[in-house]
Amino acid sequence: DDHAADLLLIAGDLFYEKATAAEMADALAHVRTAFAGFFARGGTAVAVTGNHDDDAKVDLLRAGLFLASPAPSGGTFARGRVYVQNGLTFGTFEAATGEKAQLVLVP
Questions:
Q1: Distances (CA, A) of 15 to 1, 2, 91, 100
Q2: What angle do CA 93, 94, 98 make, to 5 degrees?
Q3: How far is 48 from 105, CA to CA, in rounded Å?
Q4: What confidence tens digit (pLDDT) does each residue in 45-65 have?
Q5: Interval 60-74: pLDDT, tens
Q6: CA 37/CA 22 separation, integer angstroms
Q7: Alpha-carbon distance 62 to 105, whole Å?
């Protein structure tokens, strides 16, 4: 939060492949707490899965996130959201300063 970043990119294995639903919920709660300030000021996190992630678990997580904010599919990544992608995805991110970045996520 000290550096006022607008975008957090997370690459690679998001969860231990044998993680239980409870362990995943605890990990997500930790991220929510640790990055509360980042999200409160409109920070956006974009994560792409790694080869040790369980696609079914990631699909479940994405389904819940999609209810809150659909993935851009060529559009714009909304600020203040978390996106988890386990398939080819692309879109534009616009920082609070107006600077834009094109993102291509390849798991």
A1: 24, 26, 24, 29
A2: 160
A3: 6
A4: 888 888 888 888 888 888 887
A5: 888 887 776 666 778
A6: 24
A7: 15
